[in-house]
Design goal:
Elements lengths: L2 H13 L2 H8 L3 H15 L4 E4 L2 E4 L1 H25 L6 E7 L1 H6 L1 H11 L3 E7 L2 H9 L5 E5 L7 E16 L5 H7 L3 E4 L5 H13 L5 E4 L3 H9 L5 E4 H5 L7 E5 L5 E10 L6 H11 L18
Parallel strand pairs: 3-4, 3-5, 7-8
Antiparallel strand pairs: 1-2, 5-11, 6-9, 6-10, 6-11
Helix pairs in contact: 1-2, 1-3, 1-4, 2-3
């Protein structure tokens, strides 16, 4: 399987049609069709099911997709390693949790761009579990995720430790009152978010059950709904304090011990770290951190 066939297969899989793949690859449809037939002939199995709306992957094609993405990523990694002349330049693919992207990433990227203007950074946001999959699949060079992370194929470095707080609308009922009325709604990111997992664990431990769930995709969306008394949430204190909705929110520490979350920068273990990725990791290490000592935090009751 040569690199052209690999790129063609991936383009067809992404676009779901020969026409779309041809446009992506800047070639004609007949070239795409020929490559796909050759590839299917090499494997001796059908990789796509043809239908009126385009094509979909067969089970064999789905299995190949994982390896094809990995092979393409490894080829790009090898090319970057061979061409690495010790100069910080080229591209860098970074993943980030939505909360980190909203509050910390702008300052981090601004400083990095000033120091290394020749680097093109691609940022992908998502929940921790999804970002880890992208790093392991070579789709990202590294990602800012919530700890703890214990995976043999990943290397993690601490970036910041901060407090998770309970967020409710200002001047509204306490948690006990909400539960008594049977009207508790929690607002979270989608499945795979580490803050959501911490919220669920903490609410179960404290007996704050049952509750309805409302999923949203952005920090401001969540906090806007909390400020409108739609529900409650748990997020890092820094995220809430930076929000435009802050004036409408009540922020409370968990007692008797505050909840601490650690943001980590993870990358693949065993992969050669290029000059650009190394420079970004050093920039993260030199960035501002938040002290997690309880005596520096407000510890109001949660109601």
């Amino acid at each position: 399987m040569d690199s052209t066939a690999l790129a063609t297969f991936l383009a067809v899989a992404r676009q779901g049609s020969v026409t779309g793949a041809a446009l992506e690859l800047h070639t004609v449809q007949s070239n795409v069709t020929v490559r796909m037939k050759q590839l299917e002939g090499d494997f001796g199995v059908a990789l796509f099911v043809r239908h009126s709306r385009g094509v979909t992957l067969t089970p064999a094609g789905t299995r190949l997709l994982v390896y094809a993405e990995r092979l393409q990523a490894l080829a790009a990694e090898a090319r970057a390693a061979v061409c690495d002349a010790g100069v910080v330049r080229g591209s860098l693919r970074v993943g980030s949790m939505e909360t980190t992207a909203a509050v910390r990433l702008p300052k981090l990227l601004a400083g990095f761009y000033r120091a290394y203007p020749d680097v093109q950074i691609e940022v992908r946001t998502g929940p921790t579990s999804e970002l880890l999959e992208h790093v392991l699949a070579h789709r990202l060079d590294g990602a800012l995720v919530a700890g703890p992370i214990n995976h043999p194929d990943l290397v993690a470095r601490s970036v910041v430790r901060e407090e998770l707080v309970l967020v409710t609308a200002l001047g509204t009922a306490t948690m006990s009152e909400r539960l008594a009325r049977g009207g508790l709604t929690v607002i979270t990111f989608r499945q795979g978010c580490s803050y959501r997992q911490r919220l669920d664990a903490e609410f179960i431990t404290r007996g704050w059950l049952p509750y309805r769930r409302l999923e949203m995709g952005t920090v401001e969306g969540i906090l806007g709904c909390v400020g409108g008394n739609v529900g409650v949430t748990v997020l890092p204190r820094s995220v809430v304090e930076a929000s435009q909705a802050r004036a409408a929110l009540r922020v409370e520490s968990f007692v008797p011990e505050p909840l601490i979350v650690e943001t980590l920068f993870v990358r693949r273990n065993g992969s050669a770290m290029g000059t650009t990725t190394s420079a970004f990791e050093k920039h993260l290490s030199a960035s501002e951190t938040v002290d997690s000592r309880p005596d520096l935090m407000t510890t109001a009751g949660t109601g």
